[in-house]
Amino acid sequence: MKDIAIIYGSSTDNTKNVAQKIAQKFAGENVLLKDVSSLKFSDLANYPNIILGTSTWGLGDLQDDWSDHLTDLQNVDLTGKTLAFFGLGDSSSYSDTFTDGMGLLYEAIEGKGFKLAGEFPTDGYSFDSSKAVKNGKFIGVAIDEDNESDLTEQRINAWITSIIPALQ
């Protein structure tokens, strides 16, 4: 059995709903599903696998709950853990900051000794720019519930399949 923490920040419940869909894909595993605003960060020590999710707000800003708790996350020892990311954004109205929140979250803890899992191809997405793209791929799965909700399930399934071999 794998121990997986799924931590998300959600202002309109879209990210929460996606986090719940992801958690359902890990039925039978020991899954902690928590909103970042109610998380006791010391609990993450018990989870070798951590999935972080956020939406993007305004002109490429990190979701408020994550902004409020970013220092708490930066203080967690992530050495040897496997991390995966998911981010929500609007590729049409905010195509120049699509899923920037996911990129900002990653950048805040980059170099903290974790192994990244679940890099996701940008093929099939229409956007101009994203801080979540590193080396030609998203650092996690990008979800657009505003314009492409019909692709959410397919994208989550492909992403989960890609991270399962990396989980401890």
Description of the structure:
It is a single chain. Helices cover 27% and strands 24% of the residues. The protein is built from four helices and ten strands. By secondary structure, it is an alpha/beta fold. Strands 1, 2, 3, 4, 5, 6 and 10 form a seven-stranded mixed β-sheet that branches. The protein has a three-stranded antiparallel β-sheet with strand order 7-9-8, with no helix packed on it. The protein has one domain (3-152): Flavodoxin domain (Rossmann fold), CATH 3.40.50.360.
> What order do the SSEs take from the amino end to the carboxyl end, as H and E?
EHEEEHEHEEEEEH
* Total strands: 10
Structural class: alpha/beta
Question: Which percent band covers the strand fraction?
Answer: 15-25%
Low-confidence stretches: none
What is the overall silhouette?
A: globular
Spatial separation of the terminal alpha carbons: 9 Å
CATH C-level label: Alpha Beta
CATH topology: Rossmann fold
- Specify the biggest β-sheet: 7 strands, mixed
Short description:
The protein is an alpha/beta fold. The chain has helices at residues 14-25, 64-74, 100-109, 152-163, and strands at 3-8, 30-35, 49-57, 61-62, 82-88, 115-116, 120-121, 133-134, 137-138, 141-143. It has one domain: Rossmann fold.
Please name the defining characteristics of this protein.
168 residues; alpha/beta; Rossmann fold; three-stranded antiparallel β-sheet; 10 strands
What's the SSE blueprint?
Elements: E1 3-8, H1 14-25, E2 30-35, E3 49-57, E4 61-62, H2 64-74, E5 82-88, H3 100-109, E6 115-116, E7 120-121, E8 133-134, E9 137-138, E10 141-143, H4 152-163
Parallel strand pairs: 1-2, 1-3, 3-5, 5-6, 5-10
Antiparallel strand pairs: 3-4, 7-9, 8-9
Helix pairs in contact: 1-4
